[in-house]
Amino acid sequence: MKIMNLNSMRETYSTQMKYSILFEMGLGIAAYTYYDFHHTLEKPTGYWEDIKNELSSTVQKELNYTHKYNTWFALLQLLHSNHFDSLQTFIEFLYQLPESKVRRYCLPYIGSRHEETRRKASHKEEEAIASLMNSCKHHKFFPAYIEYISMVDIDVLKKHLKIISEGWYKTVIEPNYTEFTAMLERDVQQKRALYSTYTSEEFVKHVTGIDYQPEPSIHQVLLIPQYVYRPWNVETTLPGVKVFYYPISDENVHEIEDPYSPPSALLHGYKALGDETRLKIIKLLTEKDYSLQELTKKLTIPKSTVHHHLALLRAAWIVKVHKSRYYIQIENLNSLQEKLQRFLERK
């Protein structure tokens, strides 16, 4: 059958960039409480131990609560609800918000067709809460998180978010404020200078390394640089907006580039390759895609161990996962030799 296409062009999205030290704070809290991923992050595990030792016992207790209920997600959601030029303005805004608005901001956006259900859940309607939980039942933590946000005492949540925000800001952000803000600003300025030379989709791929195709109800991509979660991209979705907290480029970490400091992608790539089990996984994935269960059976080692290795391969952008199946990114694997050559030739 022949088809006549009368569409003038394919729909796409617009892009926007912004940065804030408060997003760095929120992502730092998320990374700290995501214990299973510490081995994949650029910062060594000792970095997180040092922070723990510097935090007060009160803040440590509240961060354990964050780990249990994933309240870092609530913090990030609230940071997107308005523009805040300081932590104090954010705290003041949080404390004047009515209960239903706090719940509405904190509940995850899972698609336009669920927005009315999300609104009803923010008013503690049990049927809506159950429906919202069911609509994302396969997500790692959303169902339990939705139940928590829908039922928690809002004064308890506000006090909790205030303690972890002020505690993290004082311990981690303030001593490094000038350095953090300078590197975030450098990265945004560098990327904005290149914006006009790309289409929106090309620009998103250049900044994040992700080939993000337009999808229904998403009209804008928001790009936010972050340092603490390198080398990971962290993704979330807001109404009409896809958000990528992307790792800032190596050259923007320091004002003066050290020619002897290897690029992050090179470092993580060869670290991922330096293990017998991970090389076996790579070889298996060059043959076909596998689920975690299938890889566990094939390798005859514990599932938690396989997951540990896959996390390192994903951090190195050698492996990706889609609908619970892992596959190889052969272009990124093949480019490691080229990255090594460029590093060796760096002046």
TrEMBL record:
It comes from the Bacteria. Keywords: DNA-binding, Plasmid, Transcription, Transcription regulation. One of its GO terms (molecular function) is DNA-binding transcription factor activity. It holds the Pfam family HTH_5. InterPro entries: ArsR-like_HTH, HTH_ArsR_DNA-bd_dom, HTH_MetalResp_TranReg, WH-like_DNA-bd_sf, WH_DNA-bd_sf. The keyword Disulfide bond does not apply. The keyword Transcription regulation applies. Gene3D superfamilies: Winged helix-like DNA-binding domain superfamily/Winged helix DNA-binding domain. This is Bacterial regulatory, arsR family protein. It comes from Priestia megaterium (strain ATCC 14581 / DSM 32 / CCUG 1817 / JCM 2506 / NBRC 15308 / NCIMB 9376 / NCTC 10342 / NRRL B-14308 / VKM B-512 / Ford 19) (Bacillus megaterium). The lineage of its organism: Bacteria, Bacillati, Bacillota, Bacilli, Bacillales.
